[in-house]
Amino acid sequence: MTATEYDIAIIGAGIVGSSLASHLAPHARVLLLDRDLAVRGSSGHNPGFVGQLNRLPPLTELARRSVRAYSTVPGGFENSGCLEVALTKPELEMLRARGALARASGMKATLVSQAEARRLAPAFVEDCVGGLHFPDDGSADPKVLAKHYQAQAASAGATLLAADVLAFKEGAVETSEGVIKAKRVAVCTGIWGTQLLPLPMAGAVVVGQGYAYSSTRRPRTASPIIRWPGVQVYGRDHGDRDGIGSYDHAPVHVPTSDIGGHSTAASAWNKAFTGALARALALLPEQTAARFYGRTLAGTGTEDAAAAIIQAREAGRAHAFNSLFQVTSDGYPLVGRVQDGVYAI
């Protein structure tokens, strides 16, 4: 057992754990530990989309404060904006209501025409009836931010340790580097939280969702992040390639027993997502979709498109994978004390 007794041991050195350590280190004896301090876990595989509007005002305010904080870190936040696209008139009315909610929350949001939506994101938007533009949204770089906060924490006196957590004991954490005394423990491990706290975090489950990168291309004028909320699809300009993901499929549960085998929040492609991804790619202009398939598929059906996705992935022309998320039954964050001296964030 180490001689030092820490006021708090923070497990998980991704963006959440590292940020927490940077805030607490000036005021307490802090230990930040992770099996890999190089940020390869949930944060290392996170696309970083920050949409600030939420139906709960406190979560909207939290997101707005996060953007302000991320924007002070060089390379930490790209203010690309976000464009939500409506495919039908009822969807456009839903966006109109979201725009009113955003403005009531002090956010900028503008309803745009079909022509303006195409102008904002010509590589992603083809058919639509309009959209809602959030100019202050964008994408964070979780790796850059986590390493920045780690450096801040270390300079304020925090101890950083690369180690596996084996178990909790009263007033201590058992790790692969020995037993460490700590008055409090904060678990900030993303999808691995259910392994460390199986009973307290039973309400949070890990699910898979399909995402794909296109083949590389020449850089172009950057597009805002794109969302098609009516069909649960989103897309992003990644600089030298495009990305698209879809929630338009039945939930795919990933058992807790399988999580330990993953070093990052992604796993091999699940063919259950192929149809959903084919429907998502049908929303894109033909030239953009072709970079995912490796060829033009004009006029083909969903089954043919699904087969082409698998062929493109197997040939190395595009990269499709199963992205892992932790969700709760009500869709809201699980945060707070889960047992004496132990907190989940």
UniProtKB/TrEMBL annotation:
Gene3D superfamilies xref list: D-Amino Acid Oxidase, subunit A, domain 2, FAD/NAD(P)-binding domain
FAD dependent oxidoreductase domain location: 7-286
Superkingdom, natural source: Eukaryota
Signal peptide residue numbers: none
GO cellular component, one term: mitochondrion
Transmembrane segments: none
Protein name as catalogued: FAD dependent oxidoreductase
